[in-house]
Amino acid sequence: MNAKPVVGTASPAKTPVAFIAILGALMAFTSLSTDIYLPAMPQMARDLQGDAELTVTGFLVGFTIAQLIWGPISDHFGRRLPLFIGMVLFAVGSVGCAMSENITQIVFWRVFQALGACTGPMLARAMIRDLFTRTQAAQMLSTLVLVMAVAPIAGPLLGGQIIRFSTWHSIFWLLAVIGGVMFVSLVWLPETLSPEKRTRASLGNAFHNYFSLLKNTAFMRYTLSLTFYYVAAYAFITGSPFVYIHYFGIDPQHYGWLFAVNILGVMAMSVVNRRLVVRHSLESLLKGASVIAVIATIALSVLVKLNIGGVASIVITVFIFFSMNGIIAATSTAAALDEVPHIAGAASALIGALQYGSGIISSLLLAFFRDGTPWTMAWIIALFTLASFLVVLPAKAKRTAA
After folding, report:
1. What's this model's pTM, rounded to 2 decimal places?
2. Residue 253: how many CB atoms within 10 A of its CB?
3. Cβ(346)–Cβ(210) under 8 Å?
4. Domains of the chain: which residue ranges?
5. pLDDT in tens, 153-191
6. What percent of the chain clears pLDDT 70, i.e. is strictly above it?
7. In this structure, what DSSP letter does residue 207 have?
8. Less Cβ crowding at N or C end of the chain, within 10 Å?
9. Which of 384, 361, 399 is nearest to 290 (CA)?
């Protein structure tokens, strides 16, 4: 684990299992930090006498802003140091959440928690780009999705069981412990950005990389495609507790199973994508998966509007939509990073900031247009899935050696 593979020669098939497991866990930090307490949100709202959805919004605000800071820092100092600091911040923030007594306190600590959590997925993506070529990076990202998918499956199930025997505070104490475990695991993670490849300019100048990224049409096309898709995904993540638990009366302990079935679809498509990326261009795979997602979400909105199929129609159409994440996330991220390999840290930060910051848009739209039915969630999902497809439609196929 101490030797650093050379970019272009590192093979996904020969990558150490421990390396994959640690990066997969880092990629899972966002999902784990939010999904694990979804079943407890109604209880939190009562206890804290406020809107529990603000805890999701606060986390995403902190997550979005902090990534833009950590990106240039990682390009300048390497990947490991920001990760160690990030895990400490995450653990401290989790303790703060566990000890919160009102909605203002927990939103503050959720923002603080996000300052550390964001280093996980952002730097995991950057490390993959440090080591692998375009197609190999897509394969590795698909592999990591399989590992990280454990979090959104286990999270709601575990959270639902915890609130049966304890309170929501215990969920955040558990997150603090997980942060400590991840801090220790980083000892076995190698540095992937060699000193000679680090940004030599001052950190102030390094932040100007964001302006060049925003002006890079190809990079932004793939990044916005992923961003719009995640607006739709977060509309479901944030809106589904209300739809399933309140509107359809599903028990909070069973909510986790309905949420988890979507992640099984993501895992299955990630396995398929590992084989497809060596036969087809990333662009064609991204467009194909986006078309399927559009069809599923249009069906979702129509069925909900006409009140056909009840909860079953939502579960089935959302399953198809969510499953496409196994292709869309890996291909769009790999294609975007391939456009700017010389500033992968800043690029990964901007991707992550827009990807997870998209959840803020979802939360605000759900709050502003809420009508007491699943319709608001459905049309937001359909609208932004369509936008995700349209923005990537002009992309030209680009083949590179595996």
Report:
1. 0.74
2. 15
3. yes
4. 15-188+212-392
5. 778 778 888 888 888 999 999 999 999 999 999 988 888
6. 91
7. T
8. N
9. 384
